[in-house]
Write a structure and sequence with these properties.
single chain, alpha/beta, 9-stranded mixed β-sheet
Length: about 325
């Protein structure tokens, strides 16, 4: 039965993806094009590789995922443009760069929104998270699930950054995101939006600082070009697992279910992987000689962003309403 189901699914997928199947020709494997900006070993890749493994296994080889990684198709903004146009079928994207396409996504990157992973899971896997995923259809994306980057922390090559005053004047790389630019402007730094990776810019001193989860610092060896790490956890950085909407909706229901289930399972797997690795990654950075401030003055950072909700970033009625709902849901867990 499983073999029959897989053959039927393959034939339907093949037609929808534009594969020619001449009469009596041997079956060819359906190819799904999936892109991430990071390199193997990074959180995005862990989710993408797990999705590839699951869907190829569950389709009995009828589906093959071609994974484009390491920025081979451009920055996350460029990947989103290709996904929107349909030249890509799927992508795993950091929430930040999505805000120029879908401003509502900003609400889950609100500073100090989540106290920990459990709180993030409850909100993103619940009604608020589903509303955000569903809303992506307005701009041509199918929101499948949330995997994760993790809590973001600041590193720099200039000085220890114990309090908000210590980041004043730092030239910091930020994502191509209006929210991130505004956050670091308010904190007194000099935000410089750039695609990823940025090792050369840090090495050459073009920028002083960056902010990312611990795993990114390890995978990209940022300890070689950054002396100081401050565990601010200022933003929980979600990854949004996406498909091109027209492509996804054009699939038969069984194929949509297969794509959805495999990506959801891959996202949950990746989140567990990231959290299990975090302590080891931090120990590796310390062993390399990086100076780590594990208990910074977070109140000084929070004080700087206490009026963040009143910024023009959230002025559109639909964004403001969703932010209020998100903040209320987060506070209900405290």
């Amino acid at each position: 039965m499983r073999v029959l189901y897989s053959k039927i699914l393959f034939l339907i997928l093949a037609g929808l993806l534009g594969l020619a199947l001449p009469h009596n020709a041997p079956a060819e494997t359906v190819d799904i094009r999936l892109a991430v900006v990071t390199k193997p070993g990074s959180a995005q890749n862990i989710a993408a590789e797990k999705f590839k493994e699951l869907i190829e296994e569950r389709s009995d080889g009828g589906v093959r995922v071609t994974l484009y990684h390491s920025g081979s198709l451009g920055t996350e903004t460029e990947i989103l443009q290709q996904l929107q146009l349909g030249s890509l079928h799927m992508a795993i994207i950091t929430a930040g760069p999505l805000d120029s396409f879908y401003p509502e996504i900003r609400v889950i990157s609100y500073p100090f929104l989540f106290a920990g992973y459990a709180q993030a899971d409850t909100l993103l896997d619940g009604p608020v998270g589903q509303k955000i995923l569903d809303g992506l259809s307005r701009v041509g994306f199918k929101g499948l699930h949330f995997s994760e980057n993790g809590f973001r922390h600041i590193t720099n090559s200039r000085r220890p950054a114990h309090s908000a005053s210590d980041v004043a004047g730092l030239k910091i790389r930020v994502m191509e995101s209006a929210l991130d630019i505004e956050l670091w402007r308010i904190l007194g730094a000099n935000p410089t939006p750039m695609g990823w990776p940025i090792y050369a810019e840090l090495q050459q001193g073009t920028i002083d600082a960056q902010e990312n989860p611990i795993s990114i610092a390890v995978v990209y060896k940022l300890q070689e070009v950054q002396k100081y790490l401050t565990l601010t956890g200022h933003i929980y950085s979600a990854h949004v697992d996406l498909a091109n909407l027209a492509w996804f909706e054009g699939l038969p229901s069984a194929a949509r279910e297969l794509v959805q289930t495999c990506m959801s399972d891959a996202a949950i797997y990746q989140r567990a992987w990231s959290r299990a690795k975090e302590a080891g990654f931090l120990a590796e950075l310390k062993a390399s000689g990086m100076e780590v401030d594990e208990h910074p003055d977070l109140d000084s950072f929070r004080a700087k962003v206490e009026d963040f909700a009143n910024l023009p970033l959230f002025s559109a009625p639909e964004v403001r309403a969703l932010l209020a709902e998100t903040l209320a849901a987060a506070r209900a867990q405290n």
